[in-house]
Amino acid sequence: MARDKEKRSCGQVWAEWQEFIWDPRTRQFLGRTGTSWGLILLFYLVFYGFLAGLFALTMWVMLQSVDPHVPKYQDRLATPGMMIRPRTEGLDVTFNVTQSQTWRHYVRALHQFLEPYNDSVQAARNAACVPGRYNEQPDDSVLNYPKRACRFNRSSLGPCAGLAPADDYGYGTGQPCVLLKVNRVINFFPGRNKSINVVCAAKREEDAALLGPLQLFPPNGSIDLMYFPYYGKRVHVNYTQPVVAVQFTNATANIEHFIECRLNADGLRTDDERDKFAGRVAFRLRINRD
């Protein structure tokens, strides 16, 4: 019969652990001498230093192939996206006219978004460009020379400009304004030298009567060609992209309205079902009244 192992006392176990941590006879710490610890630490220092250097070299080589001013690949940006302001979760603008706490955050968001568009700011930063034509600015042998940005005055948005301090962009009267912006795409020339504009309508024709008339600002939802092309944020420092405002003046209350806005420009596709934000945006509006 196998002999039972001798049971060790707690004192013996503790003594063995103390000897493992520091053995005064062999001067070993955790089973290794000082020389052994030094060699293994030196190995890992060299090993991880080599890996860090290899990673840094790889990143440096990759960055040499990247232009900080223009994206290297733009083949999927034939049609820019569109978005609305105020920014909402799920593109859903819902509020109650008589309950200001349901729409005050929309008003604050619009005020904040439009601050750079103040006429005084635009006059100080940007130039009065010639309307009706592209604002092309070649480098003239100076690579990435800073470009002039054209003025887009907030006052051109009419009643949706929110110029008065107490202006609520129509939310307090049940005639809300929604801003539409076209995403920036470098070297994008929309319209083939023809005028471009934004059009909005109910997604379903049978809902058009319930949605009521729409007013677009600037008139006809036009976007002047002088705001194109865009040369990138490093070169086009003060660029403020054009905005179109749509105001719902008589939308039926207490029901959901589904609206779609499209960029109307010659040669621009906005019917690609694989990308529902290419040149268009759809959102929901509900105006509740007690």
From TrEMBL:
Taxonomic path: Eukaryota, Metazoa, Chordata, Craniata, Vertebrata
Record protein name field: Sodium/potassium-transporting ATPase subunit beta
GO biological process, one term: potassium ion import across plasma membrane
Cellular component, GO annotation: sodium:potassium-exchanging ATPase complex
Organism: Chordeiles acutipennis
Stored InterPro entries: Na/K_ATPase_sub_beta, Na/K_ATPase_sub_beta_sf
Subcellular compartments: Cell membrane; Membrane
Spans through the membrane: 37-63
Pfam families: Na_K-ATPase (PF00287)
